[in-house]
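Before the break, one more example. Copy the sequence into your notebook; we will annotate it together after we see the structure.
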Amino acid sequence: MRTEFIDVDGRWGIILNFNFTEKDEEEMSAIMDSFGMARRNIERSMRILFTHNSGMAVSRDDLRMSAIFIGEPTSRSQFWNSIAHELRHVSTAIIDYYGEPYNGEPAAYLDGYLLQKVVEEIAEPCGE
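Here is what the structure looks like once it is written out:
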């Protein structure tokens, strides 16, 4: 599994996980557990994440942290589609935590900033 940590100006952290296999299930489960997910939800999430073009984001306000899991993509563009989708969930959690409007400029800037940070961290996402 490849794991990258994205620091959002010291105000929020994102653990991004991708290129995982079933041998990473224990580590993935531990991350989900640390975010307070119930065992039943972790098991359901695992079944989903081991399908193509899947993803999941979970956030904890008290930690100001999010975790993103991206399942195996069928293409490079699908990988980025899944990243953008899950980053939107994280952006919504951050915007909600800081009490900003969802349709305002801070939210739009945050979306772009998060994607920029991910692109900076991930040069070659799919081993290409």
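The chain has a mean pLDDT of 93. The longest helix spans residues 76-98. Try to locate both features in your own notes.
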